[in-house]
Amino acid sequence: MTRVLFAPDGFKGSISAVAAAxxxxxxxxxxxxxxxxxxxxxxDGGEGTLDAFLVAVPGARRMPxxxxxxxxxxxxxxxxxxxxTDDAPQGTGVVELAxxxxxxxxxxxxxxxxxxxxxxxxxxxxxxDHGVSRLVLAIGSSASTDAxxxxxxxxxxxITDADHLDVVPGLRxxxxxxxxDRGGVRSxxxxxxxxxxxxxxxxxxxxxxxAVFGPQKGLGPADVADADAALARAAALLDTDAAHPGAxxxxxxxxxxxxxxxxxxxxxxxxxxxxxLAAAVAxxxxxxxxxxxxxxxxxxxxxxxxxxxxxxxEGRRVGLVAGRIAPExxxxxxxxxxxxxxxxxxTEAALADPAxxxxxxxxxxxxxxx
Length: 370
What we know:
The chain starts with a strand and ends with a helix. By secondary structure, the protein is an alpha/beta fold. The longest helix has 18 residues, at 221-238. A six-stranded mixed sheet has the order 3-4-5-6-9-10, sandwiched between helices. It has a five-stranded parallel sheet with strand order 2-1-11-12-13, sandwiched between helices. Strands 7-8 form a two-stranded antiparallel sheet. α12 (303-314) links the parallel β11 (286-294) and β12. α1 crosses α15 and α6 (170-176) crosses α8 (221-238). It has 15 helices and 13 strands. The relative contact order is 0.16.
């Protein structure tokens, strides 16, 4: 009997981490019904982070909240309240940017210049209103490049242009911002705020928020340099280091949170600690992880890289399943790698029935790694 651990991240825009683990496990069982299987859905600070906390922490509660989404319309979202602990006697509030200001909320209708993070800030304010002792803020999967200005405004900042008028939402507002008055900004809770980032990018430059992630959010080649210059001015207004790792996360929201006093940490590592990933890997013979698109950025703070690193430490066989595997991606850490698109024959077919093709990937890995 082989002991198999399934620890995938979510497949963005396709299937959640919980459902992905179930589908992969079902496929493996079809090929090897006698194996012992454990499902441990992962996250790295992007979408699915709230679910990871709900699964991992006994007594965690989902707290509904209505916010303004990145499209300017109302969104029914939530944050998670973790039970009291010695260092957080009033509980910890976990707030996820993906479900409040995330790119998936746009349903493909990208808004590169006016999407913002106001809803994320509103959810943070709701957690503060509840009286939490500490915040955990997950900032992956953002829709905007607004330097976190929308979030700061929701927390009480006033951001104005040269004419002393409030700036408009999104990158348009970052371009014209001349002053940030933080006198009315809400204070951090007593236990501070920990920011889970799925990337370690600086705010500006060739590896920064505009250059690397702007095109994914709809910025054209001619827009990137202008956006980068706007983010550099934002760093000066925030009085924060644009080169700090993670400052460029979520279109610069990492920089704004750091200016607020929060601590930026790699999300995959902290969530792995929370769900007991190291112990689960040590107890397995084979480990399977995955995400929607495995590319050159996947090795820098993403969940599959963290899973693979722990598997290598324990000398465990490890497999990767991805919606697609980019030609430049380094898969050398994996004993076997399967792309769902390759099994389905096309991106359209893979997206039409994600659970079916993840189950097929689970069968394939059972044959290759079981």
